[in-house]
């Protein structure tokens, strides 16, 4: 079985529709066909300096949502990144094998740093793609399901793996991204050309998995649409309508051309109502299961500990090889 690895940051109280369609749903599907490793990226979340209580709560909410969305602790390994100390160690080793120029090319850093102003953005934001490379290479992953925003980071990961292998001898599997075209970038409802994002979308632009049906419906109805009244996919001239069509298609499984035919002559109102219902129907069962899982933190923490043990076994193996190949002395 090929191995799959992916992570999600606990940077908000809830995942959003982009996370769900672009990542989490693929994770659930891939546990049937792959040796599946998934993690909650709490080290990455530090880049935006959450308070300790926020971080603790969001880490548990993230785990509960993943199980609620269908991750099966028997078939998948779900763990918390900070439980595996080797991630930080490997990140440092890879940092020392990365050029300033190559790190500075990462567009996510530029996007995220813009919010803080160039010189007050944290160094962690700058180096986090390299930590991400460490996360992936640690588990010798073959495939990494992510949204389009992570494409550049995956290329960096592949470069770092190849460089390390040629400098120090075969150590890492060179991973491939898995980015399904139709859901690679779910747009912000208020700014459909920008990606829906936990940390940068406005509340009106986000559809959150744990949100109540009322607000979800309201946001879809108020989503930015385009001039005209035809429900057709046209990414250039109608990014808002195209985004909603992609959302409805991904959630219901009905192809976009069939949806276009269904709403011919009906206008935006009827269309948006159905998009809203489709999203509400997809999220409600996940929200309910998440609430139940959160009621028993002891059990949730136990499941994460089991995942952590399985992850630790592989991390230990990889790091023994890495330390030996780069020339660290053995401990005893
Ligand atoms: P943040 O704003 O804090 O970076 P995020 O919304 O980008 O949060 P992440 O935890 O960084 O979420 O990403 C988790 C996964 O979700 C990644 O695989 C990412 O590519 C994917 N993803 C995030 N936003 C979208 C989106 N709008 N469309 C499709 N996939 C997405
Ligand atoms: Mg992100």
From TrEMBL:
Keywords: Aminoacyl-tRNA synthetase, ATP-binding, Cytoplasm, Ligase, Nucleotide-binding, Protein biosynthesis. The keyword Protein biosynthesis applies. Pfam families: tRNA-synt_1b (PF00579). A motif ('KMSKS' region) lies at residues 195-199. It is an enzyme of class 6 (ligase). Its main location: cytoplasm. ATP binds at residues 9-11, 18-19, 147-149, 186, 195-199. Its EC number is 6.1.1.2. GO terms for molecular function: ligase activity. It catalyses: tRNA(Trp) + L-tryptophan + ATP = L-tryptophyl-tRNA(Trp) + AMP + diphosphate + H(+). It comes from the Bacteria. The keyword Nucleotide-binding applies. NCBIfam families: trpS. Belongs to the class-I aminoacyl-tRNA synthetase family. Catalyzes the attachment of tryptophan to tRNA(Trp). Homodimer. This is Tryptophan--tRNA ligase. The gene is trpS.
